[in-house]
Specification:
Layout: H1 14-20, H2 23-26, H3 30-46, H4 52-70, H5 83-95, H6 108-144, E1 149-154, E2 157-163, H7 164-189, E3 191-192, H8 208-214, E4 219-220, H9 224-229, H10 232-258, E5 266-267, H11 286-309, H12 322-347, E6 349-350, H13 352-360, H14 366-375, H15 380-397, H16 406-412, H17 420-423, H18 426-431, H19 441-460
Parallel strand pairs: 3-4
Antiparallel strand pairs: 1-2, 5-6
Length: 461
């Protein structure tokens, strides 16, 4: 008979057991469930709700069960439905009626809310550390490529010359925000729900603050209905992970472009590429493509939870059992993508000469030529028109701005003199942009140093 079976006159159908069971999904929370139960039963003993010797016996046996699960000695039963009932059933089988006292003053509703929070707290830390490892690689890449020039793009058209360091550090900033979002999510998640019962707390004199302290929760929930029906923390985490994957996917898109023959800006390491089953010449950026593809999977997990929760009346509903499969999938996917993506970036080769050659085309120095005129007293709109005419002239005669003679320059505007050639050199174009946040070597060096200090604080914490 099931632990809740007293009200029923017959057993559930076997197909209902299979349909209703979540043990295949939530068994990964066995440790968190046992830790929560140890804290709960310790409080029951302290408060005199159950005899202290019974509480100690339950705690001792729970620790033994934890050890046995970790060495594979415990087999979970689908008829016990979930990890909570499986562990309680195992406890009762070992110490008899004393084990039945564990669930005093507790519901599976507040129990599962506790377990998932403890589990996800740990996973947020794990993911944050994986992001940090990627940030280290990006900052190291920037150190190596402060002088590597490539075209920056808007609308996927060559726009202005920048350094490769400046480009990769844009992703560093995105990842900083991703970590900050995870920190915020952790903070809002880190509130103890246990003690809320099914939805209306309990008549037992529970010490919720004691349990919170035992489980490293800085505070307790203030509304029992909200505590058992809240899945905001899961939706928020899925949102954070979706944004993180979006950032990785954008980077992957560029990696795919850059590794093509049309761009040829980078070459991926053989260990992080694949070949074709029919075309022997192929070297495919499959890792980048898969990360890009798995982004949609994480988005789907977020949409799943938003859809599950959108029409649920208070308080708990069985629909909410679907939360774990979605969030576990997203966490697993992100934890799979980040390490392989990090190593792909770390091992790729940068083709500096090809990047520089690309920056020489597409009139990426046209804005600097216009700024040159402005600094000589020409109004910017007039300078813009002059450069537009020069670019049109260059396109018609298959030339770049660097290749124009002084006579050709002066045929458009008498303001030009020989100093224009230095002003529009790619190195000048990049390094004259020395504002904070800009691509100059000096500005990039300052950012690299700030990033190093930021990473050092993470490591020290």
């Amino acid at each position: 008979m099931k632990l809740w079976g007293g009200r029923f006159s017959k057993s559930t159908a076997s197909m209902v057991d299979d349909f209703n069971s979540s043990i295949d999904v939530d068994q990964r929370m066995y440790k968190q469930d046992i830790l929560g139960s140890i804290a709960h039963v310790g409080m029951l003993g302290k408060q005199g709700i159950i005899p202290k010797q019974d509480a100690e016996s339950i705690k001792k046996t729970l620790k033994e069960i934890l050890t046995d699960i970790e060495v594979g000695k415990v087999q979970f039963d689908v008829q016990a439905e979930d990890i909570h009932m499986n562990i309680e059933k195992e406890l009762i089988s070992r110490i008899g009626d004393v084990g039945k006292k564990l669930h005093t003053g507790r519901s599976r509703n507040d129990q599962v809310a506790l377990d998932i929070k403890i589990y996800l707290r740990e996973e947020i830390i794990n993911i944050s550390n994986l992001i940090k490892e990627l940030q280290v690689v990006l900052n190291d890449t920037a150190k190596q490529h402060k002088e590597t020039i490539l075209p920056g793009y808007t609308h996927l058209q060559r726009a202005q010359p920048i350094s490769f360091a400046h480009h990769v550090l844009a992703y560093f900033e995105m990842l900083k925000r991703d970590r900050a979002r995870l920190d915020d999510c952790y903070s809002r998640m880190n509130v103890l729900p246990l003690g809320s019962g099914a939805l209306a707390t309990t008549t037992y004199p529970l010490d919720r603050e004691y349990v919170a302290d035992e489980l490293d929760f800085p505070s307790i929930t203030q509304n029992s209905i909200d505590a058992v029906s809240d899945r905001d923390h899961i939706i928020e985490l899925l949102s954070c992970l979706s944004i993180l994957m979006m950032h990785l996917s954008r980077f992957c898109e560029e990696i795919i472009f850059w590794s093509s023959a049309e761009f040829s800006f980078i070459e991926l390491d053989d260990a992080y590429s694949t070949g074709s089953s029919i075309m022997p010449q192929k070297k495919n950026p499959d890792i980048a493509e898969l990360v890009r593809g798995k982004t949609g999977r994480v988005y789907g997990d977020l949409i799943t939870m938003l859809t599950v929760m959108k029409s649920l009346p208070l308080a708990y509903n069985k629909d909410m059992q679907e939360d774990k499969e979605a969030v576990f999938d997203a966490v697993d996917t992100v934890k799979m993508c980040l390490p392989v993506f990090t190593q792909m970036i770390k091992t790729m080769s940068v083709k500096k000469a090809n990047m520089y050659k690309a920056a020489q085309g597409g009139f990426t120095n046209a804005t600097d030529a216009a700024d040159y005129l402005v600094k000589k007293g020409v109004a910017f709109r007039d300078a813009h028109e002059i450069l537009g005419k020069l670019v049109f002239y260059c396109i018609k005669h298959d030339k770049t701005l660097d290749e124009l003679s002084m006579e050709e320059y002066k045929s458009i505007s008498d303001v030009f003199d020989k100093s224009v050639y230095k002003a529009i050199s790619l190195e000048e174009c990049v390094n004259n942009r020395n504002l904070p946040g800009g691509p100059s070597q000096d500005a990039i060096q300052k950012v690299i140093e700030k990033n190093s200090n930021y990473l050092l604080k993470i490591i020290n914490n």
